[in-house]
Amino acid sequence: MTSRVIPLGWLQLAACLMAGASLVPSAAAASADALAVQSPGGIGVQLIDAPAAGAEDPRARLYIIDHLAPGSVIERRIEVTNTTADPAPIRMYAAGASIDDGTFTGDAGDSPNELSTWNTVRPDNLDLEAGANAIVTVTITVPSDAAPGERYAVVWAEIRSGATSSGVEQVNRVGIREYLSVGPGGPPAADFIIDSLTASRAADGAPLVLASVHNTGGRALDMAGELELLDGPGGLHAGPFPASLGSTLAIGEGTQVVIPLDAQVPDGPWQAMITLRSGLLERSAQATLTFPRAGSAAPVLVTPNDDRRSFLVMAGLILVLLSIGGLLWARARRRLGPAGS
């Protein structure tokens, strides 16, 4: 069984190169893993195609994300680019990854896990001239007896420097994450809730907001979003302020999403409006916050401000009104009888 894919255009290339969105850090102490495509020169990677089912999902355009039945096979293409001034020998391989404490982390070195062993990367070695690029094909073959569940890995592009006089070899690598769910039928539903907001201050006194978020669905989530401050002292408004990137929630886990604010933001009180999203999934909430002089204030439970819930409430009201109108019309017809028909 295979899945249909669509090519990614230049907009996805731009998104992939922004802020290292498709790249992941490694836990390897002996490596210097790139958090972003190096500038002015370095080794870059970008996903060339995505599953047709995720055509509108921005995460599926940055990472290898899919839901597959046991026995399925998929292929994804990755473009590798050498923007340095020198030829670069590049090793391509898949290795294990995990989500710990709200962070997606590549395992040390080329340590395998179950998902990485399902990967075949061809070619696995590249000799790229300065300014050149190459296409690498990643094939994922899910065993027919694979157990249901979600698994994580990374496809790495790695370069090594020659050993120094002290015998130390520097390793640099950039990679694209893999989120693979296995099971029958459609993919598990993704969902999350925003529990509370906490007004706090960093060590340097700058204000920030901590959003407590829990993954209540069946897929891992990569959180992004923004916070806006309304109805502040003297009617001030501030923001929106973007959330710090890098928060990844494993299934059933929670984390705190950090939103740094401008140092000039007054203490408050403020009406804080937060919107967080993972791919196409979005949730909003609000709470009244006042920033302490130092440290953190007590967490404040939020009031959901979900457009979907508002839509459902409005739809319910419309149905009720239509039902009442129907009953009144039927009653009026009965009163009129045959002469009024």
Give a structural overview.
The strands form six sheets. Strands 4, 6, 7, 9, 11 and 12 form a six-stranded mixed β-sheet that branches. The longest helix is centred in the last third of the chain and has 30 residues. The N terminus is likely disordered. This protein has three helices and 23 strands. The radius of gyration is 25 Å and the shape is globular. The chain folds into three domains: 178 residues, Sandwich (Immunoglobulin-like); 114 residues, Immunoglobulin-like (Sandwich), CATH 2.60.40; 30 residues. A hairpin with a 2-residue loop joins strand 6 and strand 7. The protein starts with a strand and ends in a 5-residue tail after the last helix. Helices cover 12% and strands 43% of the residues. The protein is mainly beta and 341 residues long.
Count of structural domains: 3
Mean pLDDT: 82
Q: How many DSSP helices? A: 3
The number of E-state strands comes to 23
| Shape label | globular
Spell out the blueprint of helices and strands.
Layout: E1 5-7, H1 10-17, E2 43-47, E3 49-51, E4 64-68, E5 73-82, E6 88-100, E7 103-106, H2 114-117, E8 119-122, E9 125-128, E10 133-141, E11 149-160, E12 171-182, E13 192-201, E14 207-215, E15 221-222, E16 224-230, E17 238-242, E18 248-249, E19 254-260, E20 270-278, E21 281-289, E22 300-301, E23 303-304, H3 307-336
Parallel strand pairs: 4-12
Antiparallel strand pairs: 1-3, 2-5, 5-10, 6-7, 6-9, 6-11, 8-10, 11-12, 13-14, 13-22, 14-19, 15-18, 16-17, 16-20, 20-21, 21-23
